[in-house]
Amino acid sequence: MRAALAAMPLMIAATAALAQTVGDDAGLPQTGLNLPTDVSIFEKEDPAIRKPTAIINGEIITRTDIDQRLAVVVAANGGRVRPDEVDRLRLQVLRNMIDETLQIQEARANDIEVTSKEVNDSYARVSQNFKRTPEQMDEYLRSVGSSAASLKRQITGELAWQRLLRRRVEPFVNIGDEEVQAIMDRLEASKGTSEFRVGEIYMAAAPEARQQIFQNQEQIIEQIRQGGSFAAYARQYSQASTAAVGGDLGWVRAEQLPEPLASTVQQLQMGQIAGPIEVPGGFSILYLMDQRQVLTADPRDAVLSLRQLSITFPAGVKQADADARAAKFIEATRDIKGCGAAGTIGQEIGAEVVDNDQVRVRDLPQPLQEPLLRLSIGEATAPFGSVSDGVRILVLCGRDDPQVASGPSRDQIMSQLEEERVNRRAQRYLRDLRRDAVVDYR
Predict the structure, then answer these.
(1) What is the pLDDT of residues 82-121, one digit of tens each?
(2) Does 5 have pLDDT greater than 50?
(3) Is residue 238 part of a domain?
(4) Rounded Cα gap, residues 124 and 384, in angstroms
(5) What is the CA radius of gyration of the chain?
(6) How many domains does the chain have?
(7) 10 Å Cβ neighbour count for 175?
(8) What is the pLDDT of residues 199-239, one digit of tens each?
């Protein structure tokens, strides 16, 4: 997590204009490049779009490499990327792959090896997250126009860079006990205030690329709002250390974030997205996943014992038939009195009955959380579902209310501070690698 995080759904306006026209150069930012005030562009085409491949310090990224990586992003959006956005996305994918190549090359130069077994083990974990075996994941990637080799290359880059940072950066990051104690004292003083579980997509922006990065983030927000996966975009585009975990920053208080992000996150409702937000060194998109009170018991941390009754409909069922069966299910479950009665009724109407005694309210879909918190033991939710998902109810069999929340431990705070500082140094490290790289577009 990056507390300064230097650099995640409602979209808010940027706090400052990206460019403005002035009569003289007195108000222009000082770049030290001695640029003229009146600039005429002789070549307007972006070579990274015109040319299908790039050679980074002698290592080739082909058009196929780019297309296969792009296919994963498109698939994460259900294939709903507009044709006019494909070039923009392809350019960003190329930039990410250049950074990835530089990271792998630098790790190799420092005698850091990522073995095939490590990559395959990580690939298996990713496949499991998609509820697939590695073989099923191979087939899925082929079906969307990508490949296992493309994803494994991305995994290799992540593992190599993490290992390089552990060797070259982390040993030189020191956190004092007094810093940790100061944060613990502030936490205790802020008891009852809000903290947020935040997702982030951070993209660095050099002065000359600010407009392009701003527009890229606008397009990412649009795609996410149309149903795209925030985690997939974060994994592919975010340049923060949290990219590997889908941009999840974990639980933070507003004051732990840079001011532009702090003021934004406090205005969001759960599930909302905001950005692009200008931060030091680039732009961020924020996504508010959850919210709670510091060191205060949260009802949504209650652990429930639930019994679910559900019916499903065969493929191709007519709407009238589905409606009739759903109506019978609703009528039969209308006056359920306790979990014992629910089991009996379920058997009588041919419903599937499933029990789970360890369900946190917080982990349930948002529309179900408040209704379940209002239920008494033995009561049931209103029926919910659809023709494709079936119709179901949840019966509350028991509830363990949460205790007063404990704050993060000293070790957790220290780890957070270390990650923040490692991330800042990692950004500088990558910036230097870009500066020294020889990149040839073909």
Answers:
(1) 777 787 788 888 888 999 999 999 999 999 999 999 999 9
(2) no
(3) no
(4) 34
(5) 26
(6) 1
(7) 15
(8) 999 998 888 888 888 988 998 998 888 888 888 888 888 88
Three-state DSSP state, 429: helix
Does a structural domain hold residue 124? no
Q: How many alpha carbons fall within 13 Å on the CB side of residue 194?
A: 15
CATH number, domain of 311, equals 3.10.50.40
Please, what is the Cα angle at 34 between 33 and 35, to 5 degrees? Answer: 95
Distance separating alpha carbons of residues 373 and 371, to the nearest angstrom: 5
What average pLDDT does the chain have?
80
Return the closest-CA partner of residue 2 out of 218, 286, 213, 267: 286
Check residue 301 and report its DSSP letter. Answer: G
Q: Match 């350019």 to its residue by tokens.
A: 91
Is the Cα dihedral 360, 363, 368, 374 positive or negative? positive
**Domain annotation covers residue 333:** yes
Please list, residue by residue across 63-95, b when 16 or more beta carbons sit within 10 angstroms of its beta carbon and e when fewer do. eebbbbbbbbbbbbbeeebeeebeebbbbbbbb
Residue 167 lies in a domain: no
Q: Which domain holds residue 379?
A: 299-400
Strand partners, 359: 304
| Distance between first and last Cα of the chain | 38
**Peptide bond preceding 280: is omega within 30 degrees of 0, i.e. cis?**
no
Give the C-alpha separation, 9 to 140, whole Å: 28
Give the Cα-Cα-Cα angle 94, 34, 427 (nearest 5 degrees): 35
pLDDT at residue number 14: 32
Structure tokens at 261: 């992000």
Paired tokens of 231: 């985690």
* Cβ burial, residue 388 (10 Å; 0-12/13-18/19+): exposed
Rounded Cα gap, residues 326 and 305, in angstroms: 25
Tokens describing residue 191: 């008891």
Contact between 218 and 276 under an 8 Å Cβ cutoff? The reply is yes
Residue 145 amino acid letter: G
The one-letter amino acid at 24? D
Query: How many Cα atoms within 13 Å fall on the side-chain side of residue 415?
Result: 8
Neighbours of 234 (CB within 10 A): 26
Q: Count CB neighbours of 328 within 10 A.
A: 12
Identify the pLDDT of residue 10.
30
